[in-house]
Amino acid sequence: MKIVMAIIKPFKLEEVRDALTGIGVHGLTVTEVKGYGRQKGHTEIYRGAEYAVSFLPKLKIEVAVAADLVTSVIDAIAGAARTGQIGDGKIFVMPLEKAVRIRTGETDADAL
User: DSSP alpha helices (H): ranges in 1-112?
Assistant: First the structure.
């Protein structure tokens, strides 16, 4: 089992969710986060004053999947989140040691 974590642009969430549903992944967690990479933020004008925005709004998506689905999940997320512009995001994959469904007590792959 693996956790696939992706940082994406907020307006790409529905496309990513649809892509994951299309390959059979039905559960995900979304968190609003802020950060920067190569973009280094940007400047905005508010009430005539220019100011720097160092941390840009992003979404962090976390999906727990069986190890054999990781490549499909990565391809689905990358394809749906890609705009071709700087700041499209990153995908990270981490091992998942144990999973338990609280309602039924199912564990590991059965809990996913």
Answer: 13-22, 70-81
Degrees, nearest 5: CA angle 57-66-20: 45
Among residues 89, 83, 73, 78, the alpha carbon closest in space to that of 35 is found at: 89
CA 81 – CA 88 distance, rounded (Å): 7
The model's pTM = 0.84
Domains, in order of start, for the chain: 1-109 (3.30.70.120)
Q: Which pLDDT tens digit goes with each residue over 39-71?
A: 666 666 667 776 676 778 899 999 999 999 999
Angle between helices 70-81 and 13-22 (to 10 degrees): 150
